[in-house]
Amino acid sequence: xxxxxxxxxxxxxxxxxxxxxxxxxxxxxxxxxxxxxxxxxxxxxxxxxxxxxxxxxxxxxxxxxxxxxxxxxxxxxxxxxxxxxxxxxxxxxxxxxxxxxxxxxxxxxxxxxxxxxxxxxxxxxxxxxxxxxxxxxxxxxxxxxxxxxxxxxxxxxxxxxxxxxxxxxxxxxxxxxxxxxxxxxxxxxxxxxxxxxxxxxxxxxxxxxxxxxxxxxxxxxxxxxxxxxxxxxxxxxxxxxxxxxxxxxxxxxxxxxxxxxxxxxxxxxxxxxxxxxxxxxx
Amino acid sequence: xxxxxxxxxxxxxxxxxxxxxxxxxxxxxxxxxxxxxxxxxxxxxxxxxxxxxxxxxxxxxxxxxxxxxxxxxxxxxxxxxxxxxxxxxxxxxxxxxxxxxxxxxxxxxxxxxxxxxxxxxxxxxxxxxxxxxxxxxxxxxxxxxxxxxxxxxxxxxxxxxxxxxxxxxxxxxxxxxxxxxxxxxxxxxxxxxxxxxxxxxxxxxxxxxxxxxxxxxxxxxxxxxxxxxxxxxxxxxxxxxxxxxxxxxxxxxxxxxxxxxxxxxxxxxxxxxxxxxxxxxx
Lengths: 282, 282
Prior knowledge:
The structure is a homodimer.
Chain A: E1 2-4, H1 7-19, E2 24-29, H2 35-47, E3 50-55, H3 75-84, E4 89-91, H4 95-99, E5 106-110, H5 118-121, H6 125-140, E6 144-148, H7 152-164, E7 170-174, H8 194-199, H9 202-216, H10 220-234, E8 237-244, E9 258-266, E10 269-277
Parallel strand pairs in A: 1-4, 2-3, 2-6, 3-4, 6-7
Antiparallel strand pairs in A: 8-9, 9-10
Helix pairs in contact in A: 6-7, 9-10
């Protein structure tokens, strides 16, 4: 496994694969890898000849009061894990390599589906994601790109701009990887105190209960209210609980496939999770 | 020469060239081709193995009161001209082929350098250009893309977002093609009455006079004022006369290379032109 820190180095590493028309798979990450990321790499390994993983903590997707500076950077450990799951090339550029010295004037905005859910509390966040992912796509030029369904809104935003801009690759969404107790894996779980770590799986349990209620015929609004009650009682400060179509359109009743979204704070740590509930076939 | 009207058809036509690692040159146009466009194709022909020309009147770069509906569409004549100058593939998609049936949510904005000059009178115009050019780049995936220097601001905007987004191609700016009397060729020249067509070359003469004045030591502000006087006296309604660096930064004195920009209406027809004046080496 090679590690490249420059765009030029990465291109040189990938050129033989491109010339041989090999299938290139790409997994963009911010590092501090856990089993969720590794499952993305395993999925890429199945479908592709060459697997590239980027590790880049992207400054422009963090708000001024967010955790850019303190975001965990664990490159050596990440390299070790990636080598084990069959990554071919790690791309770990500096901020300067990605953004250069001249000011960036270009922004990519995906309207409507970035203004609510996680976008409401994080203005500009998804613009920053769209810009960096577009840059990485143009640098790596993969055939397939792999993203976790945990960041479901991010995945929907990426699918949208890939379609709108005709970016020549296929986006693959990979199901959420969970700890044994159900907590969706996240780099931010490491911020949780032991006590809060024990409470955190309540989010997934609440989503499972909601699914059962929906399938039993409880009205959607009541199900969402129950989720709020449960999470608040457990000590969460709920940021949002919402039901959307898989394309993130608002939905009033469980009359089609629905995705249930939760974002909630436990202490200072903001956790997100989601669960897709299939509408039962008639 | 082939004509493709679908993205799929174009990809099928280009795949053998891609597999053989041929150099692909791309000239995006809105059709109604004149010698200016044909010179872009000739330039592409020199540098590339395969030359693709797109003909697409892009609705999203026209304002509500602009000439989208009346913009001249002359595909057969264009095909004939392109075959003569060695174009390999014409890509002439429909609006539906380019934008599909689902709403486009993604926008690309290049700040600062799109808000003035032609952008001031045409809000959203350069966003529409950035989106369609990015889409075409992703569809054609050329090694080189050719644009005329007549639309100097457009060229600067394209260079900017190509750099900011790491789009993997080289942008080539091709000098303005002029009629014998100096008028910069433009599809919109066809809108001019015979009388106004005779007046139109005054723009270029004014630019040449300005260059001579600058090189003779006249202050930049005075030179710009003289241009305004001359054009107004000739019957133009001046939209703007400006001096900028080649990167479109404002400039107060002729102490470096400068580009002089003119946009002016003659009757109902808006004409633009520009001239780069090199700062004399010491």
